[in-house]
Automatic annotation (TrEMBL):
<dbReference type="InterPro" id="IPR002876">
    <property type="entry name" value="Transcrip_reg_TACO1-like"/>
</dbReference>
<keyword id="KW-0804">Transcription</keyword>
<dbReference type="InterPro" id="IPR017856">
    <property type="entry name" value="Integrase-like_N"/>
</dbReference>
<dbReference type="GO" id="GO:0005829">
    <property type="term" value="C:cytosol"/>
</dbReference>
<dbReference type="InterPro" id="IPR026564">
    <property type="entry name" value="Transcrip_reg_TACO1-like_dom3"/>
</dbReference>
<dbReference type="GO" id="GO:0006355">
    <property type="term" value="P:regulation of DNA-templated transcription"/>
</dbReference>
<keyword id="KW-0963">Cytoplasm</keyword>
<dbReference type="InterPro" id="IPR026562">
    <property type="entry name" value="Transcrip_reg_TACO1_YeeN"/>
</dbReference>
<keyword id="KW-0238">DNA-binding</keyword>
<comment type="similarity">
    <text>Belongs to the TACO1 family. YeeN subfamily.</text>
</comment>
<dbReference type="GO" id="GO:0003677">
    <property type="term" value="F:DNA binding"/>
</dbReference>
<feature type="domain" description="TACO1/YebC-like N-terminal">
    <location>
        <begin position="3"/>
        <end position="74"/>
    </location>
</feature>
<keyword id="KW-0805">Transcription regulation</keyword>
<dbReference type="InterPro" id="IPR029072">
    <property type="entry name" value="YebC-like"/>
</dbReference>
<dbReference type="Pfam" id="PF20772">
    <property type="entry name" value="TACO1_YebC_N"/>
</dbReference>
<protein>
    <recommendedName>
        <fullName>Probable transcriptional regulatory protein PSAB_01095</fullName>
    </recommendedName>
</protein>
<dbReference type="InterPro" id="IPR048300">
    <property type="entry name" value="TACO1_YebC-like_2nd/3rd_dom"/>
</dbReference>
Length: 239
């Protein structure tokens, strides 16, 4: 199951930081989650999860505060949560999650990204059944056995606990995200290298070398779209 999550996160953060896209995306997500519930992480678990994720990407406090204040105010800006499923070169599978205030614009841009880069959009459910929604939480300073013992003592379930590079990565059900973090915090963990809610493919595929550039271009174009929050795929791209 392990996909070297620390390296993946660092690569994404480095890429996104160049244009501040990651900050804008977290700002949008924080606003939406806070608007849907209470703008207080103590009473809004979904907001608490987003803020924990934002910490691992070093999202500036000013951006977080601005999004929360916007949610507390009288802003009537609304966003739709959309999921697109499609296929890339050589039958690779791709999921695109978006938050948008213009559904037609987003649909047109996502469709064009697929069609111009060797892919095609599928219908709802055509790809997602091959992925599992998963909480991924990483830390350093403890062994996998120590983490397992901590979670067992706290009666918290995990799908898997693996040592990847110098970190320990916990894979759990999405609704266990907060419970895993709280158990580890209570055991003295003060910082998490990874804190993600993601879609993990049940099986990874390798695409031929001649198709790799086209696949990477498709992913880059999708990730560059303003309304896109996350892009998931099942291509083994470990380096």
């Amino acid at each position: 199951m392990g996909r070297k999550w620390n390296n993946i996160k660092e690569k994404k953060a480095s890429k996104d930081a160049n244009t501040s896209r990651i900050y804008a995306r977290f700002g949008r997500e924080i606003y939406v989650v806070a608007k849907q519930g209470e703008p207080d992480p103590e009473s809004n678990r979904a907001l608490r999860v987003v803020l924990e994720r934002a910490k691992t990407y070093n999202v500036p406090k000013a951006i977080i505060d601005r999004a929360l204040e916007k949610a507390k105010g009288n802003s009537d800006e609304t966003y739709d949560e959309l999921r697109y499923e499609g296929f890339g070169p050589n039958g690779s599978m791709i999921i695109v999650d978006a938050l948008t205030n213009n559904v037609n614009r987003t649909a047109s841009e996502v469709r064009a990204a697929f069609s111009k880069n060797g892919g095609s959009l599928g219908v709802s459910g055509s790809v997602s059944y091959m992925f599992d929604s998963t909480a991924v939480i990483g830390l350093v300073g403890k062994s996998a056995d120590e983490v397992l013992e901590i979670l067992m003592e706290a009666d918290v379930d995990a799908r898997d606990i693996l040592e990847e590079d110098e970190a320990v990565i916990v894979y759990a059900e999405p609704d266990q995200f907060h419970s895993v973090q709280e158990a580890l915090k209570n055991a003295g963990v003060t910082e998490f290298t990874v804190a993600e809610l993601t879609m993990l493919p049940q099986n990874y595929v390798t695409i031929p070398e001649e198709s790799q550039a086209q696949f990477e271009k498709l992913i880059d174009v999708l990730e560059d779209l303003e309304d896109v929050q996350q892009v998931y795929h099942n291509v083994d791209s470990e380096e």
